[in-house]
TrEMBL record:
Its EC number is 3.4.24.-. Belongs to the peptidase M76 family. One of its GO terms (biological process) is proteolysis. It comes from the Eukaryota. The keyword Metal-binding applies. The keyword Nucleotidyltransferase does not apply. This is Mitochondrial inner membrane protease ATP23. Keywords: Hydrolase, Metal-binding, Metalloprotease, Protease. Pfam families: Peptidase_M76. The lineage of its organism: Eukaryota, Viridiplantae, Streptophyta, Embryophyta, Tracheophyta.
Length: 103
């Protein structure tokens, strides 16, 4: 399901711009894992994106997670002083995602 999502125009656009910003996406940048926490996925600086295979059961859920976390990866790449532990910084990234989401 991850590979299917990565072939869509939005994912291609985000990947292209991440690479232009200096972030190379290797084969292991986005991976499906079993998560103990009740989350769908996440972005971890220096590690990449995880999609929780035990909490995302349909393509639409995977689509949402991959795009959401690619945007966080882009923000992390572009913002020089981004501190994910700072609620204002994290909220700003989340707000940007909300603005891009279709209504």
């Amino acid at each position: 399901m991850i590979q299917r999502r990565l072939r869509t125009p939005m994912a291609k656009f985000l990947k292209e711009h991440l690479e232009k910003a200096g972030r190379s996406l290797g084969d292991k940048f986005i991976k499906a894992v079993h998560c103990d926490e009740e989350i769908s996925g996440g972005y971890v600086r220096g590690e990449g994106i995880v999609v929780c295979s035990n909490h995302t059961n349909i393509q639409d859920e995977v689509n949402q997670v991959v795009i959401h976390e690619l945007i966080h990866a882009y923000d992390d790449c572009r913002a020089a002083n981004l501190d994910w532990a700072n609620c204002a910084h994290h909220s700003c990234s989340e707000f940007c995602i909300l603005q891009l989401s279709p209504s």
